[in-house]
Amino acid sequence: MKTAIIVATYNRPALVDRMLTSLGKCAFPDHEDVEILVVENGKRAGTEEVCARHPIGGRTRYMFVGGSGKSNALNVAIRTCDADFIVFFDDDLTFTRDIVVEYVSAARRYGPRHFFGGPLTADAEVPCPPHLVPYLPSSSIGWSLGDEEQEVDRALGPTFFGANWGAFKSDILQAGAFSEEIGISPVPLSSVGEETELQRALLKDGNRAIYLPKALIHHLVRANCYTLQWVRERRARHGVTYYHVDHKGNPGARELFGIPVWVLRSLCQEYAKRLVAALTFASIEKRTTIVMRISYLKGIVHGALTDRREQRLGLPSGEQSATTS
What we know:
Distance between the termini: 23 Å
Strand content: 15-25%
CATH architecture of the largest domain: Alpha-Beta Complex
CATH topology of the largest domain: Spore Coat Polysaccharide Biosynthesis Protein SpsA, Chain A
Oligomer: single chain
Radius of gyration: 21 Å
CATH superfamily of the largest domain: Spore Coat Polysaccharide Biosynthesis Protein SpsA, Chain A
Number of domains: 2
Number of helices: 10
Order of helices and strands: EHEHEHEEHEEHEEHHEEHEEHHE
Largest sheet: 9 strands, mixed
CATH class of the largest domain: Alpha Beta
Number of strands: 14
Structural class: alpha/beta
């Protein structure tokens, strides 16, 4: 069985260097073919040279995808590699020593029609203000299902952190791979959740999710991730994702200039609440809740207006090429 570890990156060579340094200290299973594929998208920013400094036993390979967008870069890498099993990591991680062994062992034991994920520890540069904690993603606060290997209840839906999971290539392709309509890209307020959507598709296709407690990663959380501005933007990105994934899948919803009517109504209500909260000196927790709700709704509006503009201009999705070295 051949395994590929795929890491998508955009303009962050210093973090790739840190990540590969950590990955180079990991144990690799004996008699197994494991490739590390670093996929740089958008523009060349020195990542190729970083990969050359970290061959990790000749396993590291660099790929450049000319177009932007994480989902597109991942799909190019998936279709290009000849691996049977694929593990997805991000460029801002460090690893426990046996993480690769854990993934490869689980893939061998369970086989296709299963996908896997592990826990996350957040390595934060500064403490997080308590009133922001409820609105932070698991990548910023940590996540775990405990110390026992287990199948995740299908009713819970996809729960694995997008930077620490793996699946068989055949199952990924059968589920449609990553949706290129959503996912992180350089454009303002790009959507999020491309990994979640793929995991949903895998579950819908009959695959089973297995939690691996020893497949632990450490995720770097910068100080700016614990600011109101960052969290508001994150909530807005979730709103954009909602528009593309949920609203567009409901063609019967009422719209005004492409914007769901309920969103416009809710925005008016939340702005009124914000005014009242300011006049009554409401708690920071209450004011933060209102701000987050407004940010989410504005994200939906942004998604709707962007989609409407692209339709009006007749913008094509565009084919993006990839080169490898």
